[in-house]
Amino acid sequence: MLSRYETAGMKLVLSFVTLLIILLPSVTLADSSAQSFGVAPTEVSIDNLPPGEAAEFQLTIRNQDEVARVFVLTIFQPPEEDRREGRAGIPDDSWISFSSQEIPLAAKSEASMNVTVAIPPGQEWAGKDWEIWLGVAAESSELLTVKCYVRLLVSTRAAAEAKPNLGLVAGIAAAAVFLGYGAYYYLRRKTKSG
Known about the structure:
- This protein is an alpha+beta fold.
- The protein has two domains: 34 residues; 121 residues, Immunoglobulin-like, CATH 2.60.40.
- It is built from two helices and ten strands, in the order H-E-E-E-E-E-E-E-E-E-E-H.
């Protein structure tokens, strides 16, 4: 007869084996789908984007699988510890838009889609460095799905410093010279006639 500890140990081993039998096929399927598609580029950097303007770039998705798939695009705010140093999470996901949220691809094919980054106008958005990730995954009903992430780095142009208007400065200088010469000429004439 088995002791109480041996019975508990056997139950633990059986539970572990059952868990492996359930999860191993899912992990194998997820691992094989990891090799079945790709996204390029894996990192996009947009620098010096003025607030109030937009930038656009293309993502290419490759379906390397033997069957047609529908790929879904999402936006993901990475945790602070996963972002590049000095970068904050983008304040509003709606600043990023896709030409299509879903893209169907035949087997062994690829397609490109447009991604737009539009920063609203406002000096509060000037001189900022943000990071957000774009997720691409094949539509699936499986427990585990593989998602590829594209790192998107966005930096906005620093606020413009107020520069003196050279035309205005030249106009004021010319007016001062003209008025000074007029006053000199007037006083000289007045002195001669008096």
